[in-house]
Amino acid sequence: MTRDPRFDILFEPIKIGPVVAKNRFYQVPHCNGMGYARPRAHAAMRGVKAEGGWAVVSTEEVEIHPSSDISPYIEGRLWDDRDIPALALMTDAVHKYGALAAIELVHAGMSASNLYSREVSIAPSPIANPASYAPAQARGMSKADIRSYRRWHRDAALRARRAGFNIIYVYAGHGLSLAMHFLQSRHNRRTDEYGGSLTNRTRLLRELIEEAKDAVGADCAVALRFAVDELRGPDGIAAESEGREVVEMLAELPDLWDVNVSDWPNDSKTSRFAPEGYQEDFVRFVKAVTTKPVVGVGRFTSPDTMVSQIRRGVLDMIGAARPSIADPFLPKKIESGDIDDIRECIGCNVCVTGDYTMTPIRCTQNPTMGEEWRKGWHPEAIPPRSGSDSFLIVGAGPSGLECARLLGRRGYTVHLAEASEELGGRVTRESRLPGLSAWARVRDYRLNQLNKLQNVEMLRGSRVTGSEILEFGATRVIIATGAHWRRDGIGRANSRPIRGFDAAHSVFTPDDLLDGMLVAGPVVVFDDDHYYLGAVLAEKLRQGGLDVALVTPADRVSAWTVNTLEQHAIQRRVSALGIEIYVSRNIVEFDGSGVLLECTYSERQTAVPARSVVTVTSRLPNDELARSLNESPAAIGAAGIVSITSIGDCFAPSTIAAAVYAGHRHAREFDWPATDEARA
Ligand SMILES: Cc1cc2nc3c(=O)[nH]c(=O)nc-3n(C[C@H](O)[C@H](O)[C@H](O)COP(=O)(O)O)c2cc1C
Ligand code: SF4
Questions:
Q1: Each residue's pLDDT tens digit, 543-557
Q2: I need a labelling partner for 78 at 20 to 30 A (CA). Which of 142, 416, 577, 680 fits?
Q3: 537 CA to centre of ligand 1 in angstroms
Q4: What is the mean pLDDT of residues 229-241?
Q5: Distance in angstroms (rounded) separating the CA atoms of residues 510 and 516
Q6: Helix, strand or coil for residue 267?
Q7: What is the mean pLDDT of residues 68-76?
Q8: Residues 532, 574: Cα–Cα separation, whole Å
Q9: What is the pLDDT of residues 374-415, one digit of tens each?
Q10: Cα dihedral 316, 275, 103, 107 sign
Q11: Using the 8-state DSSP alphabet, how is residue 170 labeled?
Q12: Ligand 2, atom 5: closest residue by C-alpha
């Protein structure tokens, strides 16, 4: 296909100080759980982004000194010369495809744990780290400390140039850097020339930029990442006041402005809480204040929105973290006119969970993310088929769809049988819940791709039995029949059924609600799952006008969503909707008119009225079909079936990301090592 001329503007080169970006696609800094610990994996992942057409590919936060050690999180590291070779792996991988490599130099100040380096954390003024309950405080910096910090930063810029970087960041984004802490009046209580007035609080940031330019500015662009608004009103930096004033003061100093909002949960908002382009209102003033190129973010996946950002003078370059994770080839696809092949980010923040769990990044939409080096997976290049197998996949949820897509791309004949008329399984059903509509992209991308494949046949409304599978004629059978929610309350907090859940009372599962069953209020939602579903269902029921109470044995609502940066927003929304919240409470009994709660610390009991309970605890795999088939190996052999494999939730219930990954993995690896030989 050819590129739509409407998108030409996205492919115009742009000068950034002494370097030129070949187009307007800018992968902004994002961590990935690989960093200093897995430098080859990191380099391979960034290289794929460059190959996919991003003009600029950035690192994540890169610590510039042992006193900025943010262990146990795994970011980049440039403490001394010995860290240069690991980072040079990345610049080599990025340069190979004509992209510019950017590095985000960071001193985390009071946000640094220094758990590994055992240094004492530093801050503008003495303070406890507001983001952690660790029993240690940062000390206030002396003038000598400030001079040292400036020298570390300058040295890091010089090292970054030696590592091959073309753009060197000064970082005052989020609440996570010393330069930002100096700007924040709530953290900077100094009375010298680095504290007090905004001019004084900006002094250090100005010095860092000037000194970086002096050190490397002849060859490298010096970019400033600055959060123009902290979304905390007058207590913080706000776009209409201090945010704007900082940009005015430093307007022409950096070679590029990368502007966003702070803190991180506000910046990387999920689709449940913000639409594409949500940062525009905050950052649109910047271009009027500076002549330097401006980059901004906002989960941009639509080329029309990107063009509009540039044409309307909001941004010069389209910044992206998540859209580049979900589809590293997004720029190339726009360039070649293959718009409907874009794998759009769904805004779920599973990618962020890698950082919080200190493991390599993963993505719901792009199962190859994080596997570029270890497994040699590429998001677009897929090994051709290695034999003449034909496949029957039972179940068209996220796992079955991804498996069919990839096997189809590899050239195999695939039949995809789905019991219902509707494809997409849990993704389709859950995407109807409040705030989750973007999740349907998991289904839509795959269906769109499958529709282009002549060798894949989709059989809707086809509930297949074991004997039908044996007669079907496929050599390989894949079972992807999903899972269902338990009704008995068994989960993390209860290893035996909850009293009354097995009686004829109104106990509903998430599946019942997704099937459209009506619930009578008052209703208690019991969330022992701790991810998104419990709170989303509570929200749906409340929107339906019911009195709702949300009960969880955890100490907060949707506790695991700390890892997706959503926990605070979820609990705030639940609370704002007037849903009664009971944390650290288990349910001991339901008698049809109320539940008896018990505190998980004491044995104190509370009665809460409830005509219905929605129980969100754990799931059971829909594995009857797989089990019945595997009970008759002779019949399987006689039918010419080489393998029967369960994948995704019917193997072990997990996230949608895990289901997609399982489908992808099986399609790539079922014939391994033949696949590897084919690749070689
Ligand atoms: C997984 C992940 C890791 C991130 N790590 C960093 C980081 O190391 N430094 C940084 O300045 N921003 C980081 N961010 C924020 C992004 O750079 C970006 O500003 C934000 O995600 C909004 O852009 P997006 O909507 O294109 O994702 C991260 C975002 C994600 C999703
Ligand atoms: S994990 Fe979710 S939010 Fe992150 S890039 Fe992938 S689809 Fe987007």
A1: 999 999 999 999 999
A2: 142
A3: 29
A4: 95
A5: 10
A6: helix
A7: 95
A8: 12
A9: 999 999 999 999 999 999 999 999 999 999 999 999 999 999
A10: positive
A11: E
A12: 322
Residue 227: strand pairing partners: 260
CA separation, residue 635 to residues 390, 465, 467 (Å) = 18, 14, 9
CA of 535 to the centre of ligand 2 (A): 20
CA 227 – CA 264 distance, rounded (Å): 10
Ligand 2 pocket, residue 365 CB under 6 Å: yes
Whether residue 364 has its Cβ less than 6 Å from ligand 2: yes
Q: What is the DSSP letter of 438?
A: G
Q: Is the CB of residue 363 below 6 angstroms from any atom belonging to ligand 2? A: yes
pLDDT band at 667 (very low <50, low <70, confident <90, very high): very high
Q: Given the DSSP bridges, would you call strands 585-590 and 594-599 parallel, antiparallel or unpaired?
A: antiparallel
Contact 111, 69 (CB under 8 A): no
Average pLDDT over residues 226-236: 95
Nearest ligand to the CA of 26 is 1
**For residue 450, what are its two tokens?**
């499958």
Model pLDDT, residue 677: 42
- As given in the structure block, the two tokens for residue 220 are 């490298």
Query: Residue 262 contacts by C-beta under 8 Å, 6 or more apart in sequence?
Result: 173, 174, 175, 180, 227, 229, 230, 231, 236, 237
- Confidence at residue 254, expressed as pLDDT on a 0 to 100 scale: 98
Give 327 Cα–ligand 2 centroid separation in angstroms. 9
- Whether the predicted pLDDT of 675 surpasses 50: no
Is residue 160 exposed (0-12), middle (13-18) or buried (19+ Cβ within 10 Å)?
A: buried
pLDDT of residue 679: 36
Task: Specify the residue for token string 């696609």.
Answer: 25
Q: What is the number of the ligand closest to the CA of 58?
A: 1
Strand ranges, E, within 398-538: 413-417, 456-459, 476-479, 483-485, 506-508, 523-527
Instruction: Give the C-alpha separation, 193 to 201, whole Å.
Output: 8
